[in-house]
Amino acid sequence: MVAETKKEMNDLEVAIKHAIPNLAFTTSKDKYKELLESIQDTKKLYVSLVPKVISVMEMGVNGEVDKMLAQLSQLEMEESKLDQKLSDLVDKIQSFTLKAAVTAEAHERKAVQFISLAFLIAVLVGLILPKLIATSIATPIINLNTRLTELAEGDGDLRIRLNDKGKDETLTMFANS
Question: Do 101 and 132 fall into the same domain?
Answer without folding.
Answer: no
